[in-house]
Design a protein that fits this description.
There is one protein chain. The chain is α+β, with helices and mostly antiparallel strands. The protein folds into two domains: 1-62; 71-189, Mannose-Binding Protein A, Chain A (Roll). The protein is built from three helices and eight strands, in the order H-E-E-H-E-H-E-E-E-E-E. It has helices at 2-62, 87-96, 107-118, and strands spanning 71-73, 76-80, 99-101, 123-128, 137-138, 163-166, 174-177, 184-189. Strands 1, 2, 3, 4, 5, 6, 7 and 8 form an eight-stranded mixed β-sheet that branches. A hairpin with a 7-residue loop joins strand 6 and strand 7. The N and C termini lie far apart (93 Å). Mean pLDDT is 82; it is low at 54-59. It holds the Pfam family Lectin_C. Keywords: Disulfide bond, Signal. Residues 73-188 form the C-type lectin domain.
């Protein structure tokens, strides 16, 4: 009889252990299903993000995309400095930002951008007549439109104005100035 009680007791305990193990397994299975669902949702979000990035990349091919801190102005990317530097130091600064002093295709679009961001500040641009006195060109060799110069500019005042600045309050806005003047400048991103 004692043996029967022992066997019954053993079976009861074993059954309880088995029931405990089964309930733990069911909890683990439930937790695993929840984790799988969460991972599936995260994968969908990631997939949408990747597709969104591809969309942005493809639209960047169609339009101009500007890296930070440059801003898009029509189809060009510009940065207006808050620092005041000489023309040559401004040029070096722009090179450090993977750009050049601004050489806008549309001077009036850049003028509007500068006016909106900085008010009536004088801003260095990427043009000079240092190669040949009176022969003004953008740094990339493109000629400057004569109608973009203000009034009697360029006038080479005191025989020492060989760098171009933009003056947003002037119409047209281009002026020749002393390269040693310290003033703000506009950089243009070049890819």
């Amino acid at each position: 009889m004692a043996a029967i009680i022992a066997i019954t007791f053993y079976l009861l305990i074993g059954g309880c252990v088995a029931k405990v193990e089964v309930s733990e397994l069911e909890e683990l299975r439930s937790a695993m299903m929840i984790t799988q669902l969460a991972l599936s949702q995260q994968a969908q979000v990631l997939f949408r993000m990747v597709n969104g990035t591809e969309h942005v990349q493809s639209s960047c091919l169609e339009e101009t995309c500007c890296p930070y801190p440059y801003q898009r102005v029509l189809d060009e990317c510009f940065y207006l400095s808050t620092k005041k530097l000489s023309w040559s130091h401004a040029r070096q600064y722009c090179h450090g930002m993977k750009g050049t002093l601004a050489m806008p295709i549309n001077v009036y679009a850049l003028e509007s951008f500068v006016h909106d961001k900085g008010g009536s500040v004088f801003v260095w641009l990427g043009a000079t007549d240092e190669g040949q006195e009176g022969e003004w060109k953008w740094l990339n060799g493109r000629p400057i439109k004569s109608e973009d110069w203000s009034g009697s500019q360029p006038d080479n005042y005191d025989g020492n104005e060989h760098c171009m600045d933009l003056r947003p309050e002037w119409h047209p806005p281009l002026n020749d100035a002393r390269c040693s003047n310290k003033q703000r400048f506009a950089c243009q991103y070049t890819s």
